[in-house]
Design goal:
Blueprint (H helix, E strand, L loop, with lengths): L21 H9 L11 H9 L4 H12 L7 H8 L3 H11 L4 H18 L7 H7 L5 H12 L3 H11 L17 E5 L3 E2 L5 H18 L5 E5 L13 E10 L2 E10 L4 E11 L3 H30 L7 H12 L4 H17 L5 H15 L6 H18 L4 H13 L3 H14 L4 H13 L3 H14 L7 H13 L3 H14 L7 H10 L3 H14 L5 H7 L8 H10 L5
Helix pairs in contact: 2-15, 2-17, 3-4, 6-9, 10-11, 11-12, 12-13, 12-14, 13-14, 14-15, 14-16, 15-16, 16-17, 16-18, 17-18, 18-19, 18-20, 19-20, 20-21, 21-22, 22-23, 22-25
Length: 563
C-alpha cells in the first residue's frame, strides 16, 4: 500500500514508490523482462485521482481515431460514447475546451499535416484529405490554410524535399506520434578477426537494437550487414568496432547524427576475451543509459534552430521542454504559450497537455496565479487529458504526480510516480520530480539519490538548476545548512531568474548567522515577488526542520518581511 501523508519516513510508498526499484527495472529492461508495479487496470484509478476523466469523452475520442476516414455525426459520437448529445457536448467543452465535431476537425487536420510532412511515395493531397475524412476539398483547403498558415500543396512540397518517402500503413493515414529515428549498424571487426570477436559484434548489435526499441520516443531499426547505407530514413546512427589485442577484447561505440556526421556520444569498453558476456553487458548497459538523453538533447537543439515558420507541434514541445524544467515563472509562461499552440496544432498529442499541466501548477507555486483553485483545476484537467490520450506516456504520469503534489496529496503523487517510472525507468524528469516528492513527503535522504540519478540521465540542453535546488532543499530539511546554501547558490548561478529559491536561501543564511546575506536574499525575493509575505515563506519551509521554524520566522520578521 502507498504511504499515508504525514506518516513515518520511508514507510511503504506505492511499492516503496516502485521507483526505488527502478534500478532493478533498468536491469530487467536490459534482460528483456517487463516490470509494471501497478496493474494495468489501475490506470483508470490513478487517472481519477488526478481529475475525473469523463468516460464518454474517452470513448468518443477513440471512435474518432478509429473511424476518421468516415463521415461522423454528433449523434453517432453520442451513441458510441453512450450518453445524450447534450451531455457529450458539455463534457467535451469542460474537458477539451471545444465541441466534439470541432475536436474531430482538429484531429483530421493534424492527420493530414502529418501525412503531408512525411509523404508516402506518389501520394496526392486528394488521397490524404479523403483518407482523413474530408469530402469537400475546397473547404478542406481553406480550413487547412487558415489553421497552418499555408496551403496543403506547400506542406507537401516541403515534405517531399525534406525527408525520404515512406509507405502508408494498413490503417491508412493517422496522427502518428513522431519519434526520433535511429539505425543500429552492425559493429565492424578487423579483417581476419577470430570468430569470437565476430560473435561479440553481432550479439551487441542485436541486443542494442532490441533494447533501444523499448526506449519511449525512439524508433529503432537494425541494419543488415553490408546494407547500412540503405537506412536513409534514420536521422541517428549507432555503430562501432570490436577489436582483439592478445587475450583482451575492446568494444568501441559511437552515436552520430547521420544528417551531418556530428559525433554525439562515444565510449570504449575493455574485457577479457574469455568472458565476452560481461563485456557485452557493460557496453549495452552504458549505451542504453547514454543514447536516449543524447538523442533527446540533439532533437531539442534541432527544434531550437528551426525557422519559426516551419515549426510543427513536436518542435514547439521540444522548444518548451527546457523552459518547463527551468524552474522560474517567466520560463513557465513562455512554455505555456508554445504548448497551447502545440495542443491546437496536434490535439491528439499527450506530451503538450502533460507539460502544460505542470506549467500551470508552477504558476501557483511561483505566486503568478490570480485564481489558485482555478489554476490547479486546469492543471488537473490537462494531466488527465494527457493520460487519456496516451496511457503509456511516462511524461503524462510525471506531470500528473506533480499536480497531485500541488494538491498536497502525497499518497496519490507517489502512486502516479511509480507508474511513470515503471513505464520509463530512465526518465530524468521522473527522477527529478521523485526527488522533490521525497523531500515533501519526509524522505530527504532518499531524494539525494533521486536527484543524482536525474542529473546523470539529463539530456544535453535541459536545465540542471531545479535538481540542484532540490538537493539544497533536501539538505536544508536535514539541517545541513552549509550544503543547502551551496546547492541553492549553484542553482541560482545556473538560472538567475529562479528568484523563488531565496525562499529557502534566506532562511538558510539566517541559520548560518549570515544576516547580511539573508537580507540580500530576502530583498531579491521581494523584488521578484512583491506579494510575498512571512506566512507564505514559512508555509514553504519543509515540515519537521530541526526545531528552527520559530527562529527563522522571527529572523525574517526582523529583516522586514511583512506578516
Amino acid at each position: 500500500m502507498v504511504r499515508q501523508r504525514g506518516g513515518a519516513p520511508g514507510t511503504g510508498r506505492a511499492d516503496d514508490c516502485a521507483a526505488r526499484r527502478a534500478g532493478g527495472e533498468a536491469d530487467a529492461m536490459a534482460s528483456g523482462t517487463h516490470i509494471d508495479p501497478l496493474h494495468e487496470g489501475s490506470v483508470a484509478t490513478l487517472q481519477r485521482g488526478v481529475g475525473a476523466v469523463p468516460r464518454d469523452v474517452a470513448r468518443a475520442v477513440t471512435h474518432m481515431r478509429v473511424n476518421m476516414a468516415h463521415a461522423i455525426t454528433a449523434a453517432e459520437l453520442a451513441r458510441a460514447a453512450g450518453v445524450p448529445e447534450r451531455t457529450l457536448q458539455k463534457h467535451f467543452l469542460a474537458f477539451l475546451g471545444i465541441p466534439p465535431l470541432a475536436y474531430l476537425r482538429q484531429l483530421r487536420l493534424a492527420a493530414v499535416r502529418e501525412a503531408l510532412i512525411h509523404p508516402a511515395e506518389g501520394v496526392t493531397i486528394t488521397d490524404v484529405a479523403t483518407a482523413c475524412g474530408f469530402a469537400h476539398l475546397g473547404r478542406f483547403a481553406s480550413e487547412y490554410r487558415r489553421r497552418f498558415g499555408e496551403p496543403p500543396s506547400a506542406t507537401l512540397e516541403r515534405g517531399r524535399a525534406a525527408v525520404p518517402t515512406r509507405s502508408a500503413g494498413p490503417g491508412g493515414f493517422a496522427v502518428a506520434r513522431k519519434a526520433a529515428t535511429l539505425v543500429v549498424m552492425p559493429l565492424s571487426v578487423v579483417d581476419g578477426a577470430r570468430l569470437e570477436a565476430r560473435a561479440v559484434a553481432e550479439a551487441i548489435s542485436a541486443q542494442l537494437a532490441a533494447q533501444l526499441s523499448r526506449v519511449p520516443g525512439l524508433a529503432v531499426s537494425l541494419a543488415q550487414p553490408g546494407r547500412g547505407r540503405e537506412c536513409g530514413g534514420a536521422r541517428y546512427g549507432l555503430g562501432g568496432l570490436v577489436v582483439r589485442a592478445g587475450d583482451r577484447l575492446r568494444v568501441l561505440l559511437r552515436l552520430l547524427d547521420r544528417s551531418d556526421g556530428t559525433h554525439l556520444w562515444g565510449d570504449a569498453f575493455d574485457g577479457e576475451g574469455g568472458d565476452p558476456f560481461d563485456l557485452q553487458d557493460r557496453a549495452v548497459g552504458a549505451a542504453l543509459e547514454a543514447i536516449g538523453p543524447h538523442i533527446e538533447g540533439a532533437e531539442i537543439a534541432l527544434a531550437q534552430r528551426k525557422d519559426p515558420g516551419d515549426l510543427e507541434a513536436r518542435d514547439l514541445i521540444l522548444r518548451a521542454m527546457p523552459l518547463v524544467l527551468a524552474a522560474d515563472p517567466d520560463s513557465a509562461e513562455q512554455a505555456l504559450r508554445w504548448l497551447r499552440e502545440a495542443m491546437e496544432m496536434d490535439p491528439a498529442d499527450a506530451t503538450a497537455p502533460a507539460l502544460a499541466a505542470w506549467s500551470h501548477a508552477q504558476r501557483v507555486s511561483y505566486f503568478r496565479a490570480t485564481d489558485r483553485a482555478g489554476e490547479l483545476s486546469l492543471a488537473r484537467t490537462l494531466a488527465s487529458r494527457a493520460i487519456m490520450l496516451d496511457p503509456g506516456s511516462s511524461t503524462a504520469f510525471v506531470a500528473a504526480s506533480g499536480v497531485a503534489l500541488a494538491y498536497s496529496d502525497g499518497e496519490q503523487a507517489h502512486a502516479l510516480m511509480a507508474r511513470a517510472l515503471a513505464i520509463d525507468p530512465r526518465s530524468s524528469w521522473g527522477w527529478e520530480r521523485l526527488g522533490w516528492l521525497d523531500c515533501f513527503t519526509d524522505a530527504p535522504a532518499a531524494s539525494l539519490g533521486d536527484f543524482a540519478r536525474a542529473i546523470r540521465l539529463k539530456p544535453r540542453g535541459l536545465p540542471l538548476a531545479n535538481c540542484l535546488a532540490g538537493i539544497g532543499y533536501a539538505h536544508f530539511k536535514q539541517g545541513h545548512y552549509p550544503e543547502a546554501a551551496m546547492s541553492m547558490r549553484k542553482a541560482l548561478a545556473l538560472n538567475p531568474r529562479a528568484m523563488w529559491l531565496n525562499r529557502i536561501l534566506a532562511p538558510c543564511y539566517l541559520m548560518l548567522g549570515e544576516h547580511m546575506a539573508a537580507r540580500r536574499a530576502l530583498q531579491e525575493l521581494r523584488e521578484s515577488c512583491p506579494a510575498i509575505t512571512l506566512t507564505l515563506v514559512v508555509a514553504a519551509l519543509p515540515r519537521g526542520i530541526p526545531s528552527h521554524g520559530m527562529v527563522i520566522a522571527d529572523g525574517l520578521s526582523r529583516l522586514g518581511l511583512p506578516p
